[in-house]
Amino acid sequence: MPHLIERLRKGQTWLIANYDRWWNGSMPDAQWWDAFNLWDDLDYTLRFVYKFDGCPIEGGCSDKTPMVCRGCGNTLTLFMNS
Ligand SMILES: [Zn+2]
């Protein structure tokens, strides 16, 4: 399970770092959504396979992330601030 948490932390950093690239068209849609959906799958697995409760991100999900984890509400923040 620690490897999953590590992947979610790195994944969230990646999503935050690459969100602008996708938004301005310099990253293919498929690449973005693959990463986005993978992150969601990992979060799902963490909870429903490993019974993890809470947030895998130290200090909670960033308010800059396009998507927060299920522990923080599973809110799709992607289009809310634009
Ligand atoms: Zn979270």
Quick overview of this protein structure:
It contains 2 helices and no strands. With 82 residues, it is mostly helical.
Write a concise keyword list for the protein shown above:
single chain, 82 residues, mainly alpha, 51% helix, binds zinc ion
Account of the 3D structure:
This protein is an all-alpha fold. It has one domain (2-78). 51% of the residues lie in helices and 0% in strands. It contains 2 helices and no strands. The longest helix has 22 residues, at 2-23. The mean pLDDT is 89. The protein binds zinc ion.
Task: Describe the SSE topology.
Elements: H1 2-23, H2 29-48
Helix pairs in contact: 1-2
Bound molecules: zinc ion (ZN).
Zinc ion is lined by residues 55, 57, 60-61, 68-69, 71-72.
Q: From N to C, what is the helix and strand string?
A: HH
Bound molecules: zinc ion
How many beta-strand elements? Answer: 0
> How many domains is the backbone divided into?
1
Instruction: Characterize the overall form.
Output: globular
Q: What separation lies between the terminal Cα atoms?
A: 35 Å
Q: Determine Rg (CA atoms, Å).
A: 12 Å
Largest sheet: none
Structural class: mainly alpha
Low-confidence stretches: none
Mean of all residue-level pLDDT scores: 89
Q: Estimate percent helicity.
A: 40-55%
Strand residue percentage: under 5%
Number of helices: 2
